[in-house]
Each structure stands twice: as structure tokens, then as C-alpha cells.
């Protein structure tokens, strides 16, 4: 039977938490942990989707630079290494270079773009909407170098038709980005050409 204390009312000899209180604390902690992990996962996906949008903007700028200045530009992905993050770079073709394997060089007016760890940019040639001479053109400008691009913008604004996909842990992030033979970005899954930065 509980003791009665005049100053504090009824007191109990037992102290501690009930089983229900302990289970309630564990349940709340579990819910909070789940919410935090979902929140962190969502922010990584948002960052990668933002990287995808930046890539689309970069492609539009590369196309305009190639067309306006009559330059041959290419896009080269680099995989993550022990010392470097995954990244991609813009390269420029130098027809005056006597060493054939050094004709593709980093374009100095474009920065190398780092991607988040664990991600990569995958570029595959697209045979859909590709010009008949695409493989011949690629072979003509191919070099034995890490800077050999698969995606090339020729000085007239045309490009090798290609499909670009950002991957995170080998899983696609967002829809693939299609670059048509006219160098335009096809950014949606419905298949219509977008007119990002003009359809010159």
C-alpha cells in the first residue's frame, strides 16, 4: 500500500518506467530514424536531378559555342577513381596538332564538372535519328586517348546522336537525355524536341 506524505501526497515505493512507456519511446525513436533516412535519401536524389538539369544547360551552351564559333566540341565522361570524383569535361578538336592522338584537348573555356560520389555519366550512341555517316564521322575523329569523345558537336551545330543518362549506383536518375543529330536536346519522355536555348 502506498505511503501518504503530508507534503507530497501519495508516494510509491516503486520507481522506473512502465513497459508501455519504454515501448512508446522506442516507437517514436524508430519513426524519427525512418524520417531522417528518407529525408537524406531524397536530398541525394534531388541533387542528382539538379545535376541532370545542369547537364542539359551545359549541352545547350556547348551546342551554341560550337555553332557560333565553328568549333568542334565533344563531351567526355570520366569514371570515379581512388583520387578523383566522377566527372565530365568538354574537349575541343585541334586539326593543327601534328600528333593525331593529341588532337582532342580539354576546352579551356569550359570547367571540368564533378559529379557526386557513386554516380556516373553514361553516353551511348543512338542509331535513332542518326545521320547515315555518323559512324564514319566518329571514326574520322577518333584518337587513342582518354579524351576521345563519343558525343561530338560539329562546327555547324550538328552532333552525333547520343543518349546520356546519369546513374547513381548503376541505377538511372531521371529520364535519359537525348541529343539529336541536329544537336538539339530531347529532354522529355514523350519524344518531342525541346527548344532549349533556341532551335537555330
From TrEMBL:
Major subcellular location class: membrane
GO cellular component: membrane; type II protein secretion system complex
UniProt subcellular location: Membrane
Topological relation to the membrane, as annotated: Single-pass membrane protein
InterPro entries: N_methyl_site, Pilin-like, T2SS_protein-GspH
Transmembrane segments: 20-42
Keyword DNA-binding carried by entry: no
Record GO biological process: protein secretion by the type II secretion system
Annotated keywords: Membrane, Methylation, Transmembrane, Transmembrane helix
Domain of life, per lineage: Bacteria
Xref: NCBIfam families: IV_pilin_GFxxxE
Record's protein name: Type II secretion system protein GspH
Source organism of this protein record: Aquirhabdus parva
